[in-house]
Amino acid sequence: MSEPPDSSRRAVTPPTPADFGLHVGVLGPVETLAQSVSTIAPSGSPSLLIPVIFALAGNATWFVFLLATGATLLVGFCVSRFARLSASPGSLYTYTVASLPPLFGAAAGWGLLLAYVAGAMSAGGGAIYFAGILAQEFLHTGIPDLLTLAVVCGATAWIAHRDITLSAELMLWIEVASVTVILVVLSLVPIRFGFHFDMDQLKLKGAPTSALGPALVLAMLSFTGFESATTLGVEARDPLRTIPRVVLQSAVLSGVFFMVCSYCEVLGFRGEASKLSDSTSPLHLLATRGGVAPLGMVADLGAMLSMFACVLASITAAARVSMRLAAAGLLPRAFADTSPRHGTPGVAIFASVGILFAATVAMIIHGWGGSEILDLAGSLAVFGYLTAYTLAAVALPFALRTASQFSLGVVALSVATVAAMIAIVVYDLLSATDPAHARIPYLFLAYLAAGLAWSLAKPRRRLES
Questions:
Q1: Which CATH number is correct for 29-457, 1.20.1440.230, 1.20.1740.10, 1.10.630.10, 3.30.160.270?
Q2: Which of 19, 147, 266, 366 is packed most tightly, with the most Cβ within 10 A?
Q3: C-alpha radius of gyration, the chain, whole number
Q4: Is the pLDDT of residue 161 over 70?
């Protein structure tokens, strides 16, 4: 990885009100893509989510990810249309508040902020989970959850504040390395079983139709945050072209990756005494069966680093949404301040990391482990994402009408996206059976109500992108 240029040698465009003091145009298309892909954390799903989805959907696991990819692309098309019109660190908040009444924009902003912070908590839980697995593999002992959390949060705060280019490049290389290892391991599956189609999977044999809805909710969790490149609005080079492409590319690439992983993992566990749904490290087992057991441990290490990259990407996005909310008067003005040297929102970054650390510590003290933190915090994040996605889809026809780009096709896209998001929310509510998950919707509604009440009480300084 190349060393990030010192600020004294970097050519930085002088800040304007729309720049928020961020370094303008320093990220190319690949680095911008790394932001969205890292927020998705694709390397974690093969070990954490695919086994759970398989327990529900069986041979239809790959098909569930196909449906989730379709739903994600609906949102992606809406977001990409907005991203052609505006580049701002406010992301979906900026898109919504410019086209809908202020209260709807505030709902999108608060929902998105919670989504990124809770998403960072979820990824932090994933890092704790994989750190525990690696400690058992290498040290044959456990590692304190608080120690892992402290290292993740400390490294995140330092890198996110130090330089956006360093952050993006680090995320890029982590994801490239971890995904490559996973694909190498999965490529051994067809070699072992022979190059033929698994007709049981292609025909969805024995897949319970009633379980597809709950499975789809879990699959959507794998894609949340795919739009986070929009928070890099002014920092991306040629943002009105780069960001729309990145949003769609991240959805397509992740969807294909998840479907390949699902197909190969289900095939790889054929004839195994242990079930895929019971496996805590399926890639490790597949690597062992393929005769390359060390790659299994490397895959677990890659998954842990991918979770760290997700924390870093989520905090990067949360800090920039906080800047935009602060500029609108919904958060303290200090959250909009940036470091003249680093061009990063230090107060917003450290506040986001502080909330992440405190909330995760509370969950650890409560007795929840890494996998439970990942699950519960991720479930909370989903409601924030779905709220922002839905409101952005509602706002799209109004924004395009203002820009003289209105069409019936846009209305159809908006309606289809809203319908898909509502369906996912309904499935999510119906699938919440245990008390902890059942409380999450009420927790989200209480948070959103408090945010909207605060918004109504504050004078708004509407800053255009």
A1: 1.20.1740.10
A2: 266
A3: 21
A4: yes
